Amino acid sequence: MPAALTGAIEDARMDGVTTDPDAQELDLLLVSACLLGVACRFDGQSCPAPETANLAAWGKVVAFCPEVAGGLPTPRPPAEIEEAAAGLDGHAVLDGRTRVVRNDGIDVTVPFVKGAQAALDLVRQLRIRRAILKANSPSCGAGRIHEGRFEGTLVPGDGVAAALLRRNGIQVVTEIDLSGGKS
Ligand code: SF4
After folding, report:
1. Which residues are CB-neighbours of 93 under 8 A, at least 6 positions away?
2. Dist. CA 12 → ligand 1 center (Å)
3. Which of 51, 73, 169, 174 has the most CB atoms less than 10 A away?
4. pLDDT for 105-128, tens place per residue?
C-alpha cells in the first residue's frame, strides 16, 4: 500500500474515522466512479487508480459520478469552469458567479450543480465523512482544475461537487494526494 494512503488512513483513525480492514465498523468513503474503473468519463473511458482499488477490495467504498448523476450522457463533450483562470472555481459556480461550459459553448451549469447536490444527498444519507475524488475534473477536482479555456493548463480551485462537499464538512482528497502528489 502506498505510504501516502497509509498516512491518510492513519489520519482517519486520528479523526475517529477508521478505514482499518480489520475493524468491525468501517466507515464508508465516497469515491469518484471513474477511479474505480467505471467508464463514465466524458470520453467514455475510466481512469482506475491503484490506491482506490485497494479500498474497493475492502468493500467500503461508494462509487459515484456527479456528472452522470446530474443527467449528462457518456460520452459527452468536455466541459470546464469558465473563468477558472481568473480564480473562479466550483464555489463560484455554486454562488452563481460563473458557469460550467462545454468546449462547444453550451452551458452545462445546471447538470453539474444537480450532480453535486446528488453527491451531497448521498453522503448525508450514508453518513459519509470522507471522499476520494478524481483530480483536475470540473466536478471532482479538489485543489486544482483546468483553466476554463480547454488549453490543458491547471489552476488552483475545486470542481463543483468537491466544492459543495467541502462546504458541508466532507474531507476531500484526490488520488494524486494519496499517491504522494504524483499524477
Ligand atoms: Fe469521474 Fe467525477 Fe468526471 Fe464522473 S464527474 S467521470 S466521477 S471525474
Report:
1. 81, 99, 100, 109, 112, 113, 160, 163
2. 24
3. 174
4. 999 999 999 999 999 999 999 999
